[in-house]
Amino acid sequence: MGGATIVPAVETSFTVNGQTVHMALDPRESLLDVLRERLGLTGTKKGCDQGQCGACTVHLDGRRIVACLMPAVQANGRAVATIEGVASPDGVLHPLQEAFIEHDALQCGYCTPGQVMSGLACIAEGHVGSDAEIREYMSGNLCRCGAYAGIVAAVRQAGRSGI
Amino acid sequence: MTAAAARPRVDARAKVTGAARYGTDRTPEGLAYAAMAVATVGKGRVVEIDTAAAAAVAGVRLVLTRFEASELKPPVYIMAGGHAVQSLQPLLSDHIAYRGQPIALVVADTPVAATEAANRVCARYEAAPFALELDDEDAEKLRQPEALPVPALADIAVGDAEAVFAGSEVRVDEVYDHPKQAATPMELLGCVVEWRGDTVVVHEGTQNAGALRNGLALQLGIDPADVEVISPYLGGGFGQKNSLQPHLGPVALAARRLGRPVKFVMTRPQTFHQGSFRPASRHRVRLGADGNGRLTAAIYEVDQETSRHDLFPAMYTEAMSRLYGVPNFSGPTRLVRVDTQTPGYMRAPFESPASFAFESAVDELAYAVGRDPVALRLANDTGTDPITGQPFSSRHVAECLRRGAERFGWAARDPAPGSMRADDGSLIGWGVAIGAYPACVAPAIAHVRAGADGRVVVAVDGHEMGQGIRSAITFLVADDLGIAVDRVTVDIGDTRVAPQHLTAGSWGTASALPAVHAALRELRARLGVAETGMLDVGAAVAAAGQPTVEAEAATLGPGQPPEMLDRSRAGKVAFTGPVYPGFTSFSFVAHFVEVRIEATTRRVRVPRVVSVVDCGRVASAVTAASQVRGGVVWGLGAALREASEPERRYGGFFNATMEEYVISVNADIGEIEVDFIDEPDPLLNPVGVKGLGEVALVGVVPAVTNAVFHATGQRLRRVPITIADLL
Amino acid sequence: MRAFAYAAPATVAEAVDALVALGPGAKFLAGGTNLYDLMRLEVETPPAVVDIHRLAGFEAIDTAGATELIFGAGARMSDVADDPVVRAEYPALSESLRLAASQQLRNMATVGGNLLQRTRCGYFRGGSQYPCNKREPGSGCAARGGIDSGHAVLGVSDACIATYPGDWAVALLAFDATIDVAGPHGERSVAVAELHLEPGDTPQREHTLAADELILRIRVPVSRAGAGSTYLKIRPRESYAFALASAAAGLSLDPGGTVSDCRIALGGVATRPWRCTAAEQSLLGGRLTTDAARRAGEIAFADARPGRHNAFKIELGIRTVAEALRIAAERAAR
Prior knowledge:
The complex is a heterotrimer of chains A (163), B (727) and C (334).
Chain A: E1 10-16, E2 19-25, H1 31-38, E3 57-60, E4 63-66, E5 79-81, H2 95-102, H3 112-125, H4 131-137, H5 148-160
Parallel strand pairs in A: 1-5
Antiparallel strand pairs in A: 1-2, 3-4, 3-5
Helix pairs in contact in A: 2-5, 3-5
Chain B: H1 3-6, H2 12-16, E1 32-38, E2 44-50, H3 52-56, E3 60-64, E4 95-96, E5 102-108, H4 111-120, E6 122-127, E7 140-143, H5 144-147, E8 156-158, H6 161-166, E9 170-178, E10 181-182, E11 190-196, E12 199-203, H7 209-220, E13 227-230, H8 248-258, E14 262-265, H9 268-274, E15 277-278, E16 281-289, E17 295-307, H10 316-320, E18 328-331, E19 333-338, H11 351-369, H12 373-379, H13 397-408, E20 420-421, E21 427-438, E22 444-451, E23 456-460, H14 469-481, E24 488-491, H15 508-527, H16 537-543, E25 548-555, H17 563-569, E26 579-580, E27 583-584, E28 586-597, E29 604-614, H18 621-640, E30 671-676, H19 700-712, H20 723-726
Parallel strand pairs in B: 1-14, 12-13, 17-18, 17-19, 23-24, 29-30
Antiparallel strand pairs in B: 1-5, 2-4, 2-6, 3-5, 7-19, 8-18, 9-16, 10-15, 11-12, 11-14, 16-17, 20-21, 21-28, 22-23, 22-25, 26-27, 28-29
Chain C: E1 5-7, H1 12-21, E2 27-29, H2 35-40, E3 48-51, E4 61-62, E5 68-72, H3 77-81, H4 84-89, H5 91-98, H6 103-108, H7 111-115, H8 122-125, H9 168-174, E6 178-183, E7 186-191, E8 214-221, E9 229-234, E10 245-253, E11 259-267, E12 274-275, H10 277-283, H11 290-300, H12 312-332
Parallel strand pairs in C: 1-3, 2-3
Antiparallel strand pairs in C: 4-5, 5-8, 6-7, 6-8, 9-10, 10-11, 11-12
């Protein structure tokens, strides 16, 4: 039983939070599993593995995507950003992270990394013109604890401060 | 500055940075990955199972279809005095009790190999007829008092409800249906299991590390001391993670056999078929009242599903019999066996569906007698527990209603259905409902260690699932000793530091805080300092001449015998309440809801909710408000969106994905205004807290459905209410 | 998931060649949000995929032309949704994209791939545990007589009642869009109206493209009805959900308020993007009154065949058409 994988591995290189990684990937592997299981970046969460919850939201070349629905080989040559890279290396939080804390925009915390990554993108896209717009553009991130009001307040605050 | 900015949730930083480690965030060296193949018949027997193709998948290390009872004993159901979410342990026999039951466990070097191999397992079945719903022919109906003959589950009966109802001036007699619902915490069920010599280390998001430890030990025939369960964070539990899951034993055995740590993450569809869920229930409510709507009698009959292999006790009448001062009450309860995994405790498991039925009926009564629904509720308030005749330890329902009505602007309501319109033509409806939830308490053991460095480390029973228990404990210690929050460390959800009783039923904080409070008294005694007041911890410890000073305290609920502590240490459920010697304790809430229903396409929106809660003293202002908002979000989903749909021909749950099981998204949620009475309960414990997490949800569903009635004149007695109902 | 070979060519020509070279069953993989998802469910099991998500020039958007708007098939849904010209002058197109999925998925999914999005029917996606003629021709249809509240009422057959789930193709259909495709034998154009198939007896055949053809671009003729348009999507929640019923409506009004051009297409209720020509005709030359809008909706659903739980889609669909027409008329009158 067992043995080497029969699928030709695909040499892939990309950056994660600025660090270059090279690996031989089974093309079936999702970016989510590669981040979590191969790179130990477990801040990105698995909530459905079907693109239906947003818990695995990361940035690809600066845009938010769900990592569960992307074969990791597609990241070749691209830049991936995860929650682990949001605060500065010396531990200073991003203003959106601060805003999440200030508005208690979380409970169990499991969806939170995805919410933060989505919120950062929402601000960068300019989709923070009104609470209704924020709600709509944050609706790809489910929160079963129901922290939505705090999430909207946090994105609004960070978005208005122009970051 | 927000309240949260002033005193943030203590683990918020770990959560916003991704640093918080949940059960399956562990990736130890040499990790292997498990996946499960599941039964595709509604009931029956596995006749033949072919694992050759699965075993041939590259990277596969194990394919397990059957364990011997000598290596894996079946567990005992948690509500039958054991540790497990159900008594049925898959992979012990060829019997298939429900669709989705595991038939094989595959372990491989990578997640893709494990998943592919699980898909390659091929089984042939002998199918048997099955029942999935209350009305199905094969669904077996049992009177609960006969099926479960224990005093706590006797049908509640005071006075002569039948006779008084029959003679009442005004009568309401209606039937309400509540569907199956799925807890769907964002964190999937799963674990990472690692053997270190004879010790098995389990990382799993659980509300009950003690049950996992003791239950797994019994299943494997090992000493509980050789099981460590580590669960500092859960990605939501909502009752689904309240005990030993059927996957843990097989995964632990696979890890031992392979000599490697094994990670198992259930697929989302599998969680719908293996995790516990809220069973469907049917409620017939008969209310008798005088012409002013003063309640004279209530007969509240409930049928609730349970599984074929376990009896999930139904306790719908406990809280509803205390909502109002109804002198004559009876609550005949039946269980209905269907062919699913054992259903279980999903947030406000009985109280939320019960409130939908009971508070809808009360609204119907208000319209029947032509009285304002708030005024009618106030007129039926009571300070005495009508079932025991004891006083409530505290009860501020009337204040919740008055304050909520004021904040909501209820006085402007035109009571006539369909009378209020928005500028865009939408129908406006305003609804109200109250809720109650038993204030229970479990034994707890707290250990406090103060250091000469001024730091205090607390270890206590409790699991952090987002409700904020870690914050509440931290704030209690900081405030009691007058030290900074960052000087306090709280270790919970970890069997290595303290026994871990089930955290559920909203008793977590109300159980842990008194124990910590008592341990702090003991610590002060050992330090030889005053019983209260600011303390220079470092100086006091140094003065004692030791690097650290430790203290421990165990607390019980009022009237609980000390042997309950042993029960808790054995990983069993040991709570008490809500009836205590001399008093009865419940938390209470009032919800006010505005719905707007589009004139044409009939989409229902909920722009605002006002909720006022009586949970005793508020232990942590920030996390408490968040919990209430979360409860409201749950209620809106239950009222308007959520139902698990059984597939009657194939078995199992049809809409078993996050797409098809529709929970609320951000855009569904409007303003939710939360207020607290914040009056300490004088009797339940020295800290004055009652439970909060579940009462927050109780009453939201009927407040919505009552608002829909007010908007449309349509009285809908089945949730969720959908567009199809309103066209 | 079944193992598959992977190729990532750089140009369209290389992609077409690569697909042929990889043999029967090979598929193009663009954003992956649908195909990779179905591969994980083992509903799709291609032995090989050709990754086209970064082909040179594949993402270009040109909305400045005098006669047509041109969208490269590889353009992301979010980019087309936010294109200023599309937003201002073709709100139905923009809304059909913005109301689809989530921003994360719209950042991944391409406007070409989205046209061929496969049904969300749970019996189809549920895999081999359920019979499904679309997935396994001849095996039967579990949806008929089953939980069909999400299923189609228009264009259904005895073999299949699965709903076409997309929004974008519905809006494109209303505006007479055309696609250009490339294959081993060169390029050709296909009207979106000719792209999708009703299930009939062969529900496994969902469109008229050959397996080795690649969508290059989408062309939408410039139209006055664009500005007077909307895409109204009714869902079980406010966002991030497929349609219970949806309608793309576009109108041009004479200065006097008479309807001179009218486009109506439906989503969420039919087995393919559904154009309502008779309903459109009923409005031409008259004023868009509330009654006329309702009647157009009724005409659109005149041939509806409901199942056990989806009859509500008929009344909901009629109201959705009427409401979409009302919004479109408001915009057209500006």
